[in-house]
Amino acid sequence: MPTMKDVARRAGVSVSTVSRVISGSDRISAATKERVRAAMKELGFHPNAIARSLASKTAGTIGLVVSRSPENAFANSFFPEVIRGIGSVLSKHGYYLLLIMTDDPEVERAQTLAALRSRRVDGAIITSSRVSDTLFRHLVDEKQKFVLIGRVLDDLPVSYVDNDNVKVGYMATRHLIEAGYRRIAMISGDPQYIVSLDRIEGYKKAISEAGMEFRKEYLVNAGFTREAAEEACQKLLALDQPPDAIFAADDTMASGAVRAILKSGLRIPEDVGVIGVNDDPLASMMRPALSTVRIPVFELGVWAARILMDLLSDGETVPRQMVLPGTLVVRESSSTRGLFSA
Amino acid sequence: MPTMKDVARRAGVSVSTVSRVISGSDRISAATKERVRAAMKELGFHPNAIARSLASKTAGTIGLVVSRSPENAFANSFFPEVIRGIGSVLSKHGYYLLLIMTDDPEVERAQTLAALRSRRVDGAIITSSRVSDTLFRHLVDEKQKFVLIGRVLDDLPVSYVDNDNVKVGYMATRHLIEAGYRRIAMISGDPQYIVSLDRIEGYKKAISEAGMEFRKEYLVNAGFTREAAEEACQKLLALDQPPDAIFAADDTMASGAVRAILKSGLRIPEDVGVIGVNDDPLASMMRPALSTVRIPVFELGVWAARILMDLLSDGETVPRQMVLPGTLVVRESSSTRGLFSA
DNA sequence: CTGTTAGCGCTTTCAC
DNA sequence: GTGAAAGCGCTAACAG
Question: Is the pLDDT of residue B336 over 70?
């Protein structure tokens, strides 16, 4: 492979001149610029990114850590959407994306640290936030640049972009109440994730605000899988006073609940209302079409990337935090109850 | 950040010695090894990956090019599954994954070439194969290392891993025939992708093999989207002699067909049978549950990565090509027709 | 506007 | 077993 040296020789200039035309310096005569360009072309020269990185001390790459945890369930479209958002920003800045994704949380953690410490990446976007995780503290201590999609419980100075999950839970529950349902249960996700806790909080808030009583038997955990949700829903329906509406913490779980309800011979939304969260493609394809709270995943990616870019360029040091709202999407699984009971 | 030089000074050895303990050379006394390790720890030293790459002339990273084309529709699980497969192999070899994914095919192409030429990646796995694409020819000419998931039409010497799409089309169609359907239509994907052509070929083969007549009005193109498939299916149902079964080139399109059929008041599978391809999560969640041909996406990723590793290590030069079979998965949307007509 | 000269941090002969 | 020295290919002062 030809190097800058070869190009320089061929064009009859020095390597710094070649370097300058590559980086688009302005103080270069049009003539030499042309000559160098020609030489590069003739030799089929392409600058070596590794050498550039070493000399310029920037990798030009940022890491994306995607937990394969059920939190970002792969049946839904979180993953491609968030990448699309991130990519739309990074490509403008000429950054590449290094993907860190593994089945093993320990390996994930190790690889994230390694990539950052070895300066293989200039910064990272991390998409998981467990309740107890010391990774962030380490990263902060080491002054690594990163942005979290999610949030932290303690007051660590980290930048993050989150959707307002308390509000998401509130909106979903509130909608069911307004639609006329009165015994509203929640099928929650794995409580080791902050997102789960937040949505539960929103659920409770809406319940109490409506003057309803919070029943602990109406709050069940199904760990973000469809099967667990179906089972959990069966149990709910078998209660002495079964719920007349289900708020599932995501659409996949909602689909499990729908299945349990239909199997038991009840109708949706007449007998039982259902609402999920995410608005993944599944939601609109289901029958009945699923009401849900849409999460702006693409936007989460965009903002995470923007904030990281700022962190990297400005040397900005105060953490920035953003919270994006969800949107209620009413479909068949909940909308008409009001009509029936009214 | 401390460098090897700092470690060397602290341990009272030379940099080459430090380098040796890092790379795990054996001709190092246990004592110095210990001393160096201690020094690294005390200083919080982590080797700089970029510098290593420059000196060793390997990036330690491979590129994954994912077309956001409808071919790998994002409603389905192709993307995460193939990455999971690739990752399971790469992590064993200590390689990282650089993700190249953009909305614009031209940008995608440019970035792929740039990453390879700049030696930012040692090789690439490419997941799209359009009928007319000169990218592969360029890559071959430049002796770049890459593996294709898909296949090429001409006899370019490229390594690839593909699923046997002719057979996939054949199996799906054949199943419908055996289930008792007699007027079988196909809703095909975008014909600019080789995968589409192959599945059509399989469809035709099964039709003619069964002594049925191929009707061109039964073969329609719906470009891999659900909406287009729904519309296409409506038109099929409006024919003078409407089909009694639909083979859709993927599950997403099949879901569109299902919708059109149910809307028209027909029953599935009694009046019309439906089968898709992929077996993404959607298929089992739909009602009626969708029959489909499962594609071994994880395995495609595994093999692509394995072959690429061989290409990179052995300096292997003869292209390797693999074809993986699909599996028929019979569910509610097609299984019982035989019983009715029998 | 362009060339000279040091590095960037690590690997790798080649000696001893 | 360990060290010295020469790069890997590029960037970035500093001169001029």
Answer: no
